[in-house]
Each structure stands twice: as C-alpha cells, then as structure tokens.
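Case study 2.
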Amino acid sequence: MNGIRYFRFNKGSADWDKRVAASKFSKYPSFGKPTKGHICLQDHNDLVSFRNIKIREIPADGSVQDPSDGELSLKGVPAFPNLEWEGWEPVNEETGKVVPLRPMAITHANDGSGRIFVSTQRGMIHIIDKKSPEKTKLFLDLRDKVAPWNKNNEEGLLGLTFHPDYKQNGQFFVYYSAEGTPRKSKISRFTVSKDDPNKADPQSETTIMEIDQPYGNHNGGCIEFGPDGYLYIGLGDGGSGNDPLGNGQNLETLLGSILRIDVNNTSDGKNYAIPADNPFVDRANAKPEIYAYGLRNVWRLSFDPKTKTLYAGEVGQDLWEEVNIIKKGGNYGWSVREGTHNFGNRPDTAKEKPIDPIWEYDHGVGRSITGGIVYRGKRLPELDGLYVYADFVSGKIWALEYDEKTGEVTKNLRLAASTVPVMSFGTDEDGELYYTVQTVKGGEGIFRFEKK
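Prediction:
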C-alpha cells in the first residue's frame, strides 16, 4: 500500500518458530518473543537487514500519528485555471504516450514587471503574465541540452534564479542535468534578449560550473542568491542509496554539500570566484566552494526574506525527513546520521559534530520532503513568518513556526493536503506563495492558498 508492503506474523505459529530458529539471532533469549505486530519493510530494492526494519505501535484504528498542532483554514486552488503552456502538449503525437507537465521552479525577476517565471523539468522556462494568464510565453527552450526526466532518474532542468541586478544586467542562472554521458550537472548563466524582454538569448550561455554525477538521482538542483549577493547551490550525495561513495562526510568532493560562489568575478581560470569567508578555504584538500555539508539530497533551498535565515529541506532515506537551518561550515550528519538518529551501522566519521534539524518527521507521515518558503506576503496574514513545506509522496502540506531566538519549533500546522505530489514552492514579486504539482492539465500545474 502506497509503496509499503505489510506482513503479519503470529507468535507461536509453525512459520514463526521456523523463522526464529533459523535466524542468526536465535541465541538471544529475547529474540522472536514479541506479540503480534507489524513490520514495515522499506522498498529500496536492497537486501533486508535489521537496520531497515522499523516497528511501531499502531493505534487500534490503524491510523498513524500526524505530527501537527492543529490546522489552518486554508485550501489549495489552481492559481491560473485556464492556463495553456506554449510548446507543451500532454500527449506525444508520435508515440501516443502521456507527457506530464512537471513545473520545477517558480520565481520572479524582481524587475518590477510582475511576471512569474516557471521552469519545467523537461527543460523549458515559461513566463506567466498575471494580468492576462491565459497562455504562457516561452522564455527559453533548453530541451536539446537537458537530460530528460523519467521514472528511473531525478534529472532535468532543476533550478532557476535571477541575478539580484537582473533589471540592469539581464542575467539569470539555471541548474540542469546535461544530456549525454558521462552524467554532469551544469550551472549556467544566460542573458535576456536585447530585443524582447520576454525572450532569453539562447546563444548567451556561459557555463559557470560542471559537476560530475555518478548516478541519476540525488542531484539536488536548487539555486538561490543570498542576501550577500553570492549564489548558493544545493547538491545531493551523488545518488544510488546508502551514500555508497561516502560523499556526505567528504570535504574533498562537491557532492553532499551546499556550495557558495561569487558569480560576479572570476578566479583561477574558473567562471566564478570563491568568497573569501567561505568556511573551508584554508582547509587542506577541502573544496573551497563548500558552505555546508553532510547532506543527502537538498530539496529545496530558500532564504527568509525578513530574517535572511537559510532553510533547506533534506530528503531522507529509510526513516526520517528533515528541515534544516543552514549555518556556515555546518555538518548536517549524512551519512552517519539521518535526522537526529544514527544511520544503520555506520561508524561515526563526522569531522565536526552534526547540527540537528529543527524539525523531522518519520516515514509513517511522509517519505520525501519538499522544502518550502517562509511566507512574508500580505494576502494571507495567518501564514506570516511560517515556513510552508510539503511531502512529495503523501501530498501533505504544513506550516512550521520557528522561533529564531530560542532555536525551537513552536508549532507545526496542517494545511489542506494536495491530491498529487508537491514538487516545489515559490513566490511572485509581491511575496505571494505558490506551489507546483505534476499534471496533464495545464491549468492544474500551479496552486495557491485561499481561505476555506
């Protein structure tokens, strides 16, 4: 059910006694002695070992506890219900296969135009004019450069952000999985066309950085400019499962980290420079681009517009999903820890003491966090200062209240759940919140909240 298999065993049955006797743990007196219960086997296609088994006491009604402190009277509604997407068709005419729309990033250029920019995982960037939101304008088409997403990978056009001085220099940045082999992620700069503000110049690409990717998952991909003017890049550990290459605690690789670079300058033959106060610039063999590390798969990054605090959703593996406050030089534990818990049998090889997440929830609640946004808009005062986030698998959406003075979460409030996975959150130029979902109906790809 929902990707989880349930098995029931009865103490004292012939099958149970046979399994207990055959186990290498049968010499322990307490082994095999619990009464009837449920065992949830995680569906990662790996060999079952004791670290992959979690036992929970389930209430009589079969429900799983929801870690929330109440519910806000808000519901999600399509933000642009009649929207058509230029260049996208829900069915491939040649193959007859459904081509879902996967809006990946939603943002604005902060240029006073009020336009909303939306990138799709397949490689297109669209403009929505809120004054006439019937059809998008295709700003840039990168499909010939971007590795296509499919159900076996997490690749594609994963990040989009605009230079803080976009109104003057016309620069914006993308993060995408490059077509071809070997696998690479690229961070590139483009500029807007000199003749049309609603068209990017496709020939203007400058590659800022290329990152080798050993696998097709855990590619991260969120990019954001910080209040300091530097570009922050959220990465994953390189993929597969269990961090097989040990990248999470390895400062000699860019993977498993959040990077911070200066795209306004160049240095050492690269199209970027290293900020002088990056935390590992003076550490031997460490990558100077690293701002924080010990991360499995950052999905997504955002700065609180008011306090400038950096939030990151961190996708877990077997048991725990996290919300982290990212600190310069911070170690967030992966892969010796998952959330605040030891990960399997891994020895503690952490170079610095890991920083605990401000919030975590287990896989009885959801299985893949979609990091969100601290709301600072005006339309929904009940959300002011709350971090709105979701779970991709369960469709649940919450609003987290975090007290920066005490470092404690004070509330976690439910919002109306989405019927389909929430892929990303973003804001328009007024700070109003949107979230994106996969869809085959153009008008149902972007949602906003309204009072019930």
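The radius of gyration is 23 Å.
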